[in-house]
Amino acid sequence: MLSSPKVSHLAYQILKGFEKSFRWYSRITGAAQQRFEQAQWEAGQLAVKERIAIYDQSLSDVVAQIYQQLHPHLQDKQFWHQLKHHYLKQLDDHPQFELAETFYNSVIGRLFRHQQIDDNMMFVLPSRCYLPGQVRHNVINTFDARGTIRATLEEIIRAYPFHIEYADKEQDLNRLERYLREAFSPRQLARIHSIEILQPVFYRSKAAYLIGRMCSDGDAIPFVMALMLNSRRQLYVDTLLTARHDLSVLFGFARSYFMADTQYPAEVVAFLQELMPNKKHFELYISLGFYKHGKTVFYRNFLQHLSHSDDQFEAAPGIRGLVMAVFHLPSYGVVFKVIKDEFPESKKITREQVKACYKLVKMHDRVGRMADTHEYVNFRLPRNRVSPALLDELLEVANSSIELTDDEVIIRHLYIERKMTPLNIYLEQETDPDKIRHALDDLGLCIKQIAAANIFPGDMLHKNFGITRHGRVIFYDYDEICYMHQRQFRDLPVSDDPYAIDTLSVGPDDVFPQQFEHFIVGKKHLKEQLKALHPELMEPDYWRSIQREVASGKLKDVLPYPESQRFNKRFEQQ
Predict the structure, then answer these.
(1) pLDDT tens for residues 162-180?
(2) pTM for the full model?
């Protein structure tokens, strides 16, 4: 076994590897303001992909260094216990200690192919509880709101300088003040004594957000200012969000990760959870781009839930998929997806292609319409919690991914997604015609917005969409997705010959939108409603126009709030 000084040096190397990775992450994140100011939208999308990729690159570098110094599998358990001890000693007062623990876990996971999950070797449980508030002054700006509304708003705008001009700052201030006076009573406004706003600006897609809260004697009220650029690259305030629902949607699981530059992620997450108590810690870490740590926090949350529940894992409700076996724990808010060993002839794809599709969505702008997924290897379930019917099904359709021990069901590879109500089940059970119409309308919008983001969904059966508790339709089946340019949108032949379509030459990339109405939704009255709401979806010219827009580099705005909330709509009569 290595001597203690060498073990200490190895722990030091791992921490330095994490810090190098975090500096790289921060450099990309910190450049978001410049990309925003210069309207470099494509560069922003590339930065999102690069920031996701750097973690694995940094991890590979550290693991390679370790192999140069020792053979991990020749070391005994005492060595790994010592290594964790030395690493932990370095984390005192470390501003990103929780992320550093996850990086250490990743190193151990890579070395042992995730077959060793032992809290003596790694941080299965966190080394300490984080006490929020200790460095709050490093992450928020506080504004005294006991003066006039106008003076407070002016102070906020001054505190967040940009290197470009406002198109009409006076109009923005007038609209902000008018919105507050219309949304809240004089008594409510009088009770607000301060406004707290996170110091980092949150950048995503074409917008920048100042995120905070108005503090009063009663409950705190969200305060989210959305900033955008006009065609002359001048700033303007697009809206102000003050409802918890709007804030929750802004941080939705179907949206890309924010760029928000901070050295104190735990404190930022703690503040955000005070604003959104219904969001879990792992969701908020993921929203900031710390998706690896989000996975760690999820796993801890999952273990805690298992210890406080007794229901069994079972097949998820809905129509069985052709590519994935999907199951859930009824008392927990996620679904687990395992790639099947074999696909039917209609699915001309391979296992590796399925993985590539899920990775594409991970790296792509999900525009609030594609569920984020998290990939795990050697995920362990207590065998006594897995229903016999589910275990039989998994062994039948995904046997190569399943390993059994006396106490555990180990799944070699799976994806985890947020649980939603499958749209086909929702439409079968819902009796309110207005809600049905809204769901169908949002289904059409969902498909259009995914296409505008340069993704063709492929299999658009309504069973492949879910609906959230907010009534938002989300796509979650990715095994047939591709980029828009990879499909040929063709017209069906117009002919009096009833057999003309039978002689049609069809290539593997050909798509006939006029047929979409026959399979997106099944029942006739639902088809008619969808076609009335979104007739363009069944027109080849519409899809070809989207292809041209995407090819020209045009990036459509897919806002995380309704058009009606934008100031130019709300105050268009001003």
Answers:
(1) 999 999 999 999 999 999 9
(2) 0.92
